[in-house]
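Duplicate of #3305? Posting structure anyway:
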């Protein structure tokens, strides 16, 4: 797939539009064909580098994503292939006490798309099923 990738921190000049591996989904995840990805200030901070935060490189930025479900994992049952979605950027484990009680922002594994995991500045992005907010059917 094509993606915007950076291999080192810096200014806009570190961004490259290039080939990247297709993401592989887990049983509770979906593969989203990205239709739009907004620029969030988090994307700028991550690209520049955040002191004390080891951003995995190479990295695909992009936390604010919308698109269409291209593939679903074996355990996914709330969305379907072809459905249009907006992705909630916060990604959690979905299983710990905080997540189960509805306080997922307290999950010890909490991150955002495009922060410690690859984001949506690509043709495809993986996301947990619970991050999919379906567009209303018209």
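Output from current build:
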């Amino acid at each position: 797939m094509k993606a915007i990738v950076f291999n080192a921190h810096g200014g806009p000049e570190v961004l490259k539009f290039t080939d990247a591996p297709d993401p592989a989904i887990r049983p509770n995840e979906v593969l989203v064909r990205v239709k739009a990805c907004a620029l969030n200030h988090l994307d700028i901070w991550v690209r520049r580098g955040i002191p004390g935060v080891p951003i995995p490189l190479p990295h695909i930025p992009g936390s604010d994503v919308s698109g269409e479900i291209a593939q679903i994992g074996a355990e996914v049952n709330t969305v379907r292939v072809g459905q249009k979605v907006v992705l909630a950027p916060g990604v959690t484990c979905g299983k710990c006490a905080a997540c189960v009680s509805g306080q997922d922002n307290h999950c010890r594994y909490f991150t955002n798309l495009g922060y410690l995991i690859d984001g949506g500045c690509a043709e495809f992005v993986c996301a947990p099923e619970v991050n999919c907010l379906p567009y209303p059917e018209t």
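Confirmed duplicate; merging threads. The mean pLDDT is 95. The first strand starts at residue 2 and ends at 5.
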